[in-house]
Amino acid sequence: MKKYSRITGTGSYLPPRRVTNADLATELAAKGVETSDQWIVERTGIRARHFAAADASTSDLGVQAARQALEAAGVRAEEIDLIIVATSTPDMIFPSAACILQHKLGIAGCPAFDVQAVCSGFVYALTIADSMIKTGAASKALVIGAEVFSRILDFNDRTTCVLFGDGAGAVVLEASDTPGILASDLHADGKHVGILCVPGTVAGGKVLGDPLLKMDGQAVFKLAVGVLEEAARATLAKAGKTEADIDWLIPHQANIRIMQGTAKKLKLPLDKLVVTVDEHGNTSAASIPLALDAAVRSGKIKKGDTLMLEGVGGGFTWGAVLLDF
Ligand code: UT7
To answer: Annotated active-site positions, please?
Structure first.
């Protein structure tokens, strides 16, 4: 049995509708909601985001990213023996987006399930796939982060609706004799459930409670900066590495100020930080694999580079994965 897991291909997909801050500000102004390109850029670093068409689901976005990752890895869909989709905006309550995506890929039989850890979902899913490969339960996994957050935004709340976007990213993770994933570190603290949540649910055929995203931005900001540093340091320690070994930091893309703050705390030059928040906004579980794929396709990330992936979000959840690409 092979001892490690390694990413052998990446892919991503953004829905075609690109909405700039100015476009969004104009749309919101028509509803009496005031915002500006300047406020959004200064406070978040976001310049644009993509919104999915009304009939596009998470599995639609995810399957496009998955196909690209399979092609990059040179793996046929039939060879995949595990599918994990990280999402908080699945196509339906059940079955999972992963099962629907599996069918769209034209395959059947392998285990397929969703992981719900909000913006930390991709690092959770990658860690689960790595563990399953290391125990021999799988050998070629598709790990996907996919979201249609535009569906759960309150477009009357300017403090949240300007922040998020839709998209999907994917990797093929294969059993390998060499690492691969070096270490990971996952956490959650449910006492913070109220600072970032979609409190509504479905019961008795009706939506019960508010089905739109609520966030205490400042509380999330403060927690995020602290836990991202801790998770990175814990992961480096587990792998017997130091900050100096990191070639690229790929944090969850929520706010450029949080991302740069994390890089500074880790004493990493800002040119080692992969940034896509400017063009994607916060795509929750999709943000890390989207950023990874963008950096791979632009030629920034090369084979053998050491990457630190970090997620943080609702739950509260957080975690990191260190890997040799
Ligand atoms: O994905 C999970 C992780 N999520 C995050 O990491 C988000 C973390 N939090 C943040 O990124 C920031 O807290 C925000 C970007 C959400 C907010 O930035 P901030 O610097 O914390 O702003 P604030 O909430 O302190 O608001 C400052 C002002 C307020 O006005 P007053 O009370 O000072 O008059 C807000 O009403 O900015 C106002 N404001 C806006 N103005 C124009 C809030 N949203 C907007 C807006 N346009 N869209």
So the answer is: 119, 252, 282
Does ligand 1 have an atom closer than 6 angstroms to the CB of 158? yes
Query: Measured between alpha carbons, how far is 140 from 76 in angstroms, rounded to an integer?
Result: 10
Q: For the segment 74-124, what is each residue's pLDDT rounded down to a tens digit?
A: 999 999 999 999 999 999 999 999 999 999 999 999 999 999 999 999 999
Global pTM reads 0.98
Q: Is 155 in the pocket of ligand 1 (CB under 6 A)?
A: no
CA of 216 from ligand 1 middle (Å) equals 9
Please name the residue whose Cα sits nearest to atom 26 of ligand 1.
159
Q: Which atom of ligand 1 is nearest to the CA of 44?
A: 15
Q: Where do the structural domains in the chain lie, given as residue ranges? A: 4-176, 181-324
pLDDT tens column, 285-319: 999 999 999 999 999 999 999 999 999 999 999 99
Nearest atom of ligand 1 to the alpha carbon of 282: 1
What homologous superfamily is domain 181-324 in, according to CATH? Thiolase/Chalcone synthase (3.40.47.10)
Q: Residue 63 C-alpha to ligand 1 middle, in angstroms? A: 33
158 Cα: distance to centroid of ligand 1 (angstroms): 8
The CA-atom distances, in angstroms, between 90 and each of 62, 82, 83, 113, 317 are 11, 18, 14, 11, 18
Ordered DSSP codes for 16-56? SEEEEHHHHHHHHHTTT----HHHHHHHH---EEEE--TT-
Q: Provide CATH code, domain 4-176.
A: 3.40.47.10
| 4-176 and 181-324: identical CATH topology | yes
Tokens at 270, concatenated: 């800002």
Closest atom of ligand 1 to CA, residue 287: 1
- The per-residue pLDDT for 313 is 97
For 181, the token pair is 């994933």
